[in-house]
Specification:
With 317 residues, the chain is an all-alpha fold. The chain has 2 domains: 33 residues, no CATH class; 231 residues, MetI-like (MetI-like fold, Orthogonal Bundle). It is 69% helix and 0% strand. Helix 6 packs across helix 7.
Length: 317
């Protein structure tokens, strides 16, 4: 054993749970705390840091509220967008007066989101597997897959919704051209988002090291079995956070289906605003979308943090 290192403390970079230290013993900026976790919302420096974070947050929020309330047009904006009576009326709706319930219409957004999400996961996976294949027989499908992804990633979603929603009914095809407007909206969402999600799948498949494939084949697994039991489980685990981010965007983009005339939350809010000339209904719709998307966003952050801790533990073990 080298005497120069005998009795000396171990390298902190090799000791799990030891923070990275810079010159003078300070923690390197941007490094994580000793727990291996990422930055916390209110800091991780104890009661003092939490108190400072709380006070600074209240000061910033108080300043923003003061600017809003002291603005020359504050009263008019509050009446137009934050009137409690109009917010409640738009939430419950009154068809006899010519407007729909924004609260009830949000269920159409939820149903479209859930159906589209399942279809996107399936179609995007098929696209990714076709593009990852190396079989000469599937070459035409690989070409079509590339063209599909390039087209639907390049065309704005709104144009896809308009093309499907107005173009398919105009074809006059039996059954196909006589569906509900929400159905055409879901089809457009699936076509557009599948192009994006298929690339997420491909990134996950490419993240699995080739040694995993070789090990699976050496155990006697067929190519399909290796894909099903070895490659896909690892790939899906790696792409769950970006997939959830895409689905947060999908939940919001269901509002675009309203351009076809479907009475979803955004369209119901627009009808209320054009009927009573008050836009508090848009605030109600925004709050409902936030109630749907914020929990999913926080769950995504939780998964990212958990994956970071797992990778850090694996690197230090």
């Amino acid at each position: 054993m080298d005497d120069s290192t005998h009795g000396q403390p171990a390298d902190p970079l090799l000791v799990p749970g030891t923070p990275m230290m810079g010159v003078g013993g300070g923690q390197i900026p941007g490094s994580f705390a000793s727990t291996g976790r990422g930055p916390r919302l209110l800091g991780g420096g104890g009661r003092g840091a939490t108190a400072i974070s709380t006070v600074s947050t209240l000061v910033v929020l108080g300043a923003l509220v003061a600017i809003f309330l002291l603005a020359p047009g504050s009263a008019e904006v509050r009446h137009t967008f934050f009137d409690p009576r109009d917010m409640w009326q738009s939430f419950i709706g009154n068809p006899k007066k010519g407007y729909y319930s924004v609260g009830a219409a949000i269920w159409l957004n939820i149903r479209m989101f859930l159906v589209a999400e399942v279809l996107i996961l399936v179609l995007a996976l098929v696209l990714a597997l076709i593009r990852q294949s190396v079989s000469p027989v599937l070459f035409p499908l690989r070409v079509l897959g590339v063209i599909y992804v390039d087209i639907f990633r390049g065309i704005p979603l709104l144009l896809v919704i308009l093309a499907i929603g107005f173009g398919v009914p105009a074809l006059g095809l039996p059954f196909v051209s006589h569906q509900a407007l929400a159905v055409y909206g879901v089809v457009a969402l699936v076509l557009s988002y599948s192009a994006y999600v298929s690339e997420v799948y491909r990134a996950g498949l490419n993240s699995v090291h080739q040694s995993q494939v070789a090990a699976a084949r050496s155990l006697g697994l067929s190519q399909w079995s290796a894909l099903r039991y070895v490659i896909l489980p690892q790939a899906v685990r790696n792409i769950i956070p970006p997939l959830l981010n895409d689905f947060i965007s999908l939940q919001k983009d269901t509002a675009l289906v309203g351009v076809l005339g479907a009475i979803e939350a955004n369209n119901a809010a627009q009808i209320y605003g054009s009927t009573v000339f008050n836009y508090s209904s848009f605030t109600v719709a925004a709050i409902l979308f936030l109630i749907l998307t914020i929990p999913l966003a926080r769950f995504t952050d939780h998964l990212i943090s958990r994956d970071r801790r797992r990778r850090l533990a694996g690197a230090l073990s």
